[in-house]
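[agent] plan:
  1. take the single chain provided in the ticket
  2. run structure prediction with default settings
  3. attach structure tokens to the ticket
  4. add a short note for the reviewer (M.T.)
[agent] executing step 1
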Amino acid sequence: MRKVLVTGATGFIGNYVIEELLKQNVTVVATSSNEKKASQFSWFNAVIYKPLDFSQLDASTNYLEYFDNPDTLIHMSWEGLPNYKNDFHITENLPRHQQFIYNLIQNGLKDITITGTCFEYGMQEGKLREDMNCIPDNPYAIAKDKLRLFTEDFAFNNGVSFKWARLFYMFGAGQNPNSLISQLDKALEEGEESFNMSGGEQIRDFLPVEIIAKNLVKIALQNKVNGIINNCSGIPLKLIDFVQDYLNKKKKTIKLNLGYYPYPTYEPMNFWGDNIKLNKILNND
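[agent] step 2 finished; step 3 output follows
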């Protein structure tokens, strides 16, 4: 039976990935920095749980052995989000995660999937393809891109199957309370008359976190399609239309106070993902 190590187990997407993996014929090894928090999840007693604080990595430890010799890694852990603009992503997070990946490959791991971000494309607009140049524009995206390049090279030189799953916009239960949909749900629950947001004209690529997690598991458990893979819908959608559709599905109404917030400066106005590679995986091509 395949054994899959999942980092970032208690994160927003990590929880859903573990639930999806448990539906497959695999053994799940889960890790996070807080075992008490992990123990509160429904999957806790169905997995092998091993705590790990990335700030306390020990180069002398064989982490492949520590995690019961998994066959596959799904690496989602990353500290300090959603603070995209702080340099600690480069100065602290990046070397930690490079050290972790290096350790696992050096000790024999042969199958790695890591989550990246659509922010790696930088300020480029339109449909974003995996073969486009990366022009990351904030410290988080820069650090992620450097981790990809490091892992790509080290994996190739050691015969490791490597998949880099770039995440676009996801939403669902358990999301950061400062996210758009979390704030909207809070406003609805509290009976607010209006909801403050940007002008809503920006175009994005949205998927429910359950679908993102299912896609990620399929990406990780196959080896026909490797390298960078956009985990996205491939459908451009205005934010205002996304919000209105969300309200319609919930059969809720609230006045949208458009233009209250400025458009974010760390991402382009209009972008979405090309999902041709993802569809090859989903369709078993």
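[agent] step 4 note for reviewer: Residues 222 and 281 are 8 Å apart (CA to CA).
[agent] ticket updated
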